[in-house]
Write a structure and sequence with these properties.
Largest sheet: 8 strands, mixed
Radius of gyration: 27 Å
Strand content: 5-15%
Number of helices: 21
Strand order of the largest sheet: 3-2-1-4-5-6-7-8
Distance between the termini: 46 Å
Helix content: 40-55%
Length: 519
């Protein structure tokens, strides 16, 4: 296929390299001739590097460069051009002008694709005489390495265009997901669950950014914590995306921004690119703060409290502690000096102390998501005795068979603790995308694992916990906090009630009216 790429910046040159390597003839053009020259040289250097590393042959690299055709005039006639991919700056008027001029010189059969990440595909298409020929084709940077592309049909896009774009993307070796033309499309929308909840935890002084990041990595298994991710992306970019998606979905509580970001953006605390964000960067910047040493009494007796729905969590925590040689009491009540650990699920330690008359000074929360994981989390209330808290941390830090102690993060008591709230928000936002039919469950999970690098898709992650238990967590968070951001989604509620997996698309009315035959 002959493709014309308009815009020779970082995205345009990446798309050009990817498509030419896959065997397509690529016309690369830009309003600035020097940008085209620089982009072509960049692509050549990337291909030469791939040859040096043994990732492709010299013949294949030469072939890709032969198929890359730098052009001086973006508006030249192109009777053989089958697809245009626009990758100019994020401005509606600029994109409308590009497509308007191309519409006058290219065949009516040429499909138009915009690489916009934040503008409405429908609004861009509406500026054309034939809006049906245009759809979104949203790539991620760096294009050759980020193997996911969002196919975004506008309201007027012809039905044949999205499947054709999907076939093109997958024929080039990437995965394609189809998503509705809504704010943030799919990956950016789904990614709000992690960062907005992390900011909410910081607002409430539950933990510092470094501790939230450690829990996100070590308990949830994320490659990057939310605050280091914001520093990498740039807080100015992240805050703008959060605000845009929140406004676009008419101030949906699940997507609510934080009051913490505007002043930090104004102050230039954008992250790596400015040398300082949530953390400091550069040759003179201090390294990550070391974790405090464990100083408590690891042999102090501990009683694990858990009844009713929490009994299974209590049993698991007792077994995990006993395996490390901890002194775990087995009576009906804690002894006079014993520490009390409560495996909370969407609730607070304070409520457990009040409901069950537990000793406030020596009762702490332990997150059941991490009893045997890389990191354990201890939640302390305002009534906690500091010495008892140090002893509880020492008990949780114990490891079996002489292995290295478990790292233990100490956080403020909150509904559900840090990991539970992050996970609940990730699943909740993904569920809201599914219940609105903005994307299929399979595409949601594929886009998030490929585009955001999560260890598992958010809906499959919820299934690992179980739909019923996720519903219990959402209900408990909502009931405990009163914050509508935690209200259970219809998607999770229905599947828990019906015994369906969160990844199951279920039966739709259309399924019941299509086809023919008798039951």
């Amino acid at each position: 296929m002959r493709i014309r790429i308009v815009g020779a910046g970082a995205m345009g040159r990446g798309i050009a390299q990817w498509a030419a390597t896959a065997g397509h003839i690529v016309e690369l053009c830009d309003a600035r001739t020097e940008a085209v020259t620089a982009a072509a040289e960049f692509v050549r250097s990337m291909l030469e590097r791939a040859v040096q590393k043994g990732r492709m042959s010299a013949e294949d690299a030469d072939g890709a460069m032969e198929r890359l055709i730098p052009m001086d005039d973006p508006w030249a006639a192109g009777p053989d051009v089958e697809l245009v991919v626009e990758a100019v700056r994020e401005d509606l008027d600029t994109k409308a002008e590009v497509f308007g001029r191309l519409e006058r010189v290219l065949p009516a059969t040429t499909v138009f694709a915009t690489n916009t990440s934040s503008l409405s595909v429908t609004r861009i298409a509406a500026t054309l005489k034939d809006p049906g020929r245009l759809a979104g084709l949203h790539f991620f940077n760096p294009v050759p390495l980020m193997r996911i592309v969002e196919v975004v049909p506008g309201a007027a896009t012809r039905p044949d265009v999205p499947p054709a774009l999907t076939a093109f993307v997958e024929g080039c070796g990437h995965r394609a997901v189809t998503v509705a033309d809504t704010p943030g499309f799919l990956v950016n929308h789904a990614g709000r669950g992690l960062v907005t909840e992390a900011l909410a935890l910081l607002e409430e002084a539950v933990a510092e950014p470094v501790d939230i990041d450690r829990i996100a990595r070590d308990v949830l298994g994320l490659r990057m914590g939310p605050f280091e991710l914001m520093d990498l992306t740039g807080l100015d970019v992240t805050a703008a995306v959060i605000e845009s998606i929140w406004q676009g979905f008419r101030y949906e509580d699940r997507l609510r921004p934080s009051y913490l970001t505007p002043n930090r953006v104004i102050a230039g605390l954008h992250g790596r690119k400015t040398g300082r964000g949530w953390f400091a960067y550069g040759p003179e910047a201090p390294g990550p703060a070391p974790e405090p040493p464990v100083t408590g009494d690891a042999d102090r007796p501990v009683f694990v409290h858990g009844t009713g729905p929490r009994e299974a969590d209590a049993v698991a925590l007792r077994a995990s502690l006993a395996a490390t040689g901890a002194v775990v009491e087995t009576g009906a009540e804690p002894s006079a000096g014993a520490l009390v650990l409560v495996p909370v699920w969407g609730t607070t330690v304070a409520s457990a102390i009040d409901t069950h008359a537990l000793p406030a000074g020596r009762t702490f929360g332990a997150d059941p998501l991490s009893p045997a994981g890389r990191r354990r989390v201890l939640a302390v209330t305002p009534a906690a005795d500091p010495e008892a808290a140090r002893d509880a941390r020492a008990v949780l830090a114990r490891a079996a068979d002489g292995s290295d102690p478990h790292p233990v993060s100490v956080v403020r008591d909150t509904a559900g603790s840090v990991a539970q709230r992050l996970l609940a928000s990730i699943v909740s936002v993904a569920s809201s995308i599914a219940e609105r039919s903005l994307a299929t469950p399979a595409d949601i999970d594929l886009a998030v694992t490929t585009g955001l690098g999560y260890p598992v898709g958010p809906l499959a992650w919820g299934d690992r916990i179980g739909a019923a238990r996720m519903l219990e967590l959402h209900r408990a968070l909502h009931r405990t906090t009163g914050d509508p951001r935690h209200r259970p989604s219809r998607w999770v509620t229905e599947r828990a009630q019906l015994g369906l997996a969160l990844t199951d698309p279920g039966t739709s009315p259309a399924d019941c009216t299509a086809g023919s035959g008798t039951a």
